[in-house]
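Task 17 of the worksheet. Students: predict the tertiary structure of the chain below and write it out as structure tokens. Keep your answer in the requested format; marks are given for formatting as well as content.
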Amino acid sequence: MLWLVVVEWIARAILLLLVGLSFWSITIIIDRRRYFKNLNLPDGDVKKNIRNKQFTFKEHHFYSDMLSEMATFKTSDQIDKAFDAIAVEKKKELEKGLPILATLGSTTPFVGLLGTILGIIVSFGELSQGTGSTNSVMFSLAEALILTAVGLIVAIPAVVAYNFYGRKVKSVISEAASLKDLYIAYKD
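Model answer:
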């Protein structure tokens, strides 16, 4: 029957979709790895400079760039507001691609499950027509279960990377807020 062929091709299209989503996920993971690896974060020198009231930052890194932007403001209220605006801007840069990883991590198992269901429908369709041998039915069932596995193979690294880089973002922003508070305390 024609509907069995259509359902079978839809299941195969889902497999191709999952493979494409896997490449997209890997691309984002590699991009974030490179970004955070190249994110120039200082050691304790910035805090030491702030405590010594040296508010000029010679080296360029994530925190000194933020502090340099805030240095133009005089009052602690202005610095606080400037930091909030800068932090929102920087957070977007830090979180680039993470919502996609979260979406892939939560939806690809269901896409794989949909493919599995369609594959099982094909198997039962072959059985009901009496056209499929035991081997062909078993093959189509195995092909269907592979779709669930591929969905999980896409989802698991995406979720792990999302959680890992999400913690890094929180850590960087938290450290920036700490430096801002220290800056305000020593500037006044």
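Marker's comment: The chain has one domain: 2-187. The longest helix spans residues 134-187.
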